[in-house]
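TA notes, week 10

Several of you asked for a full example with nothing omitted. So below is the full record: structure tokens for the whole chain, then the designed sequence directly under it. When grading your own attempts, check the secondary structure regions first.
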């Protein structure tokens, strides 16, 4: 690895460490008790609901029989980022949501927690490696450049490395791991845990170069010319802004930028005061819950349509409400109120109809901090760096959903930069599938 060790990257007193793990690691007894509840269905709807098609009944059966390493191998054979996915996947709407127990109005098998148990126990320091990559092929193998060190690129690189091919990941940040490191709610996954997973991937023979931005430090065309293939897994761009008067300045943050600062750089106490989060997606809910748990005086979510129209998961929103987050639907921001010293004093809002402000309904919500969570910009400049890569009307890369192939014969892509922003497990599936497509097209799959 070429990036620093974890303790050199992350401050010990960063704010995220104040947020406890909401679903802590099972004990052996807890894991076996839960595993023994599984019916090992022959049709296994949980497998069908997993974007990476993990053989859920098999890995659970192995936990029940005490074969934890075998369980972890079953998981990793389909999903090399199975540890982080166990912690961050919305299992309520994926594998656990498809569990037959759910149809019987009983608690589904805790698939995510069992997956975390197997993967965490089997990869602890001192454990023998679960996988041995095939010997490096040297000049007979592929060299693949991967842009972005998030889950899609890491999954692609891992699949290539296991087959003895060279995989070099270029990441513009000092932190590899993508949103697993910088954007996941800390009560699901701390940045340090995400970086440990990256180290596990790197140990397979993946080379990770941080602090290198494509288009600045290395040209995209040079990567295309210098490597057998290029995989683009850059995620999404910066937070979108409201574009309202008074938005620029202290106290107003893009939600993903705020979460990143809280997770990897901001230390000590946060003077949040009263917080308003604008948006109704999962990022908005995450920031609201994090602020509530970090001691904000009060937290309010403002959304332009009805609660039923929110794109965030209903179970996450319900948990936010239990933690004291107030939700004000059918309300849109129209401006900011700042004091003479520049501090935010209030968010000016109006009632909304069909997502649009209704004249004459303006009022102010007093606040000290505002988070904007209305989406992220797309990376349109990337198309200029990689000629032959086409973008759709949303600004996302056009790629074959099954293989990740783009219009350029040497470039593949996957993850958020293609799908516009889905779960980590979808990015992992994209990266894994692209790796096999690269090897098939170039005749290098054994």
């Amino acid at each position: 690895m070429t990036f620093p060790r974890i303790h050199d990257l992350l401050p010990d007193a960063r704010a995220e460490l104040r947020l406890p793990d909401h679903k802590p690691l099972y004990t052996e007894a807890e894991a076996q008790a839960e595993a023994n509840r599984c019916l090992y269905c022959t049709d296994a709807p949980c497998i069908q609901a997993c974007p990476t098609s993990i053989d859920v009944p098999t890995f659970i059966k192995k936990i029940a029989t005490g074969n934890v390493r075998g369980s972890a191998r079953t998981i990793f054979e389909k999903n090399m980022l199975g540890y982080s996915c166990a912690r961050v996947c919305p299992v309520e709407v994926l594998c656990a949501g498809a569990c037959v127990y759910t149809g019987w109005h009983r608690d589904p098998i805790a698939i995510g927690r069992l997956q975390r148990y197997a993967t965490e126990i089997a990869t602890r320091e001192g454990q023998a490696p679960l996988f041995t990559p095939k010997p490096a092929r040297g000049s007979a193998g592929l060299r693949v450049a991967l842009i972005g060190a998030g889950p899609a690129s890491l999954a692609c690189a891992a699949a290539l490395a296991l087959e003895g091919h060279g995989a070099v990941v270029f990441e513009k940040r000092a932190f590899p791991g993508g949103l697993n490191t910088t954007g996941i709610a800390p009560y699901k996954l701390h940045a340090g845990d995400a970086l440990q997973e990256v180290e596990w991937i790197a140990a397979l023979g993946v080379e990770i170069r941080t602090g290198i931005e494509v288009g600045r430090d290395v040209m995209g065309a040079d990567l295309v010319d210098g490597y057998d293939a290029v995989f683009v897994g850059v995620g999404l761009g910066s937070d979108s802004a409201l574009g309202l008067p008074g938005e620029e300045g202290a106290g107003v943050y893009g939600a993903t930028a705020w979460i990143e600062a809280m997770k990897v750089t901001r230390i000590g106490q946060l003077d949040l005061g009263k917080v308003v989060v604008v948006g109704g997606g999962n990022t908005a809910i995450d920031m609201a819950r994090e602020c509530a748990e970090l001691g904000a005086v009060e937290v309010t979510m403002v959304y332009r349509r009805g609660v039923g129209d929110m794109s965030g998961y209903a179970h996450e929103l319900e948990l936010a409400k239990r933690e004291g987050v107030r939700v004000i639907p059918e309300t849109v921001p129209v401006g900011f109120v700042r004091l003479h010293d520049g501090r935010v004093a209030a968010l000016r809002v109006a009632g909304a109809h069909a997502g649009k402000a209704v004249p004459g309904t303006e009022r102010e919500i007093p606040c000290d901090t505002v988070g904007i969570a209305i989406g992220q910009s797309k990376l349109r400049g990337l198309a200029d760096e990689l000629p032959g890569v086409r973008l759709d009307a949303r600004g996302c890369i056009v790629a074959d959903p099954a293989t990740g192939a783009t219009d350029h014969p040497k470039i593949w892509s996957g993850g958020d930069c293609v799908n516009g922003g889905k779960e980590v497990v979808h990015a992992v599936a994209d990266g894994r599938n692209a790796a096999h497509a690269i090897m098939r097209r170039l005749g290098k799959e054994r």
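The first strand starts at residue 143 and ends at 147. Use that as a sanity check on your answer.
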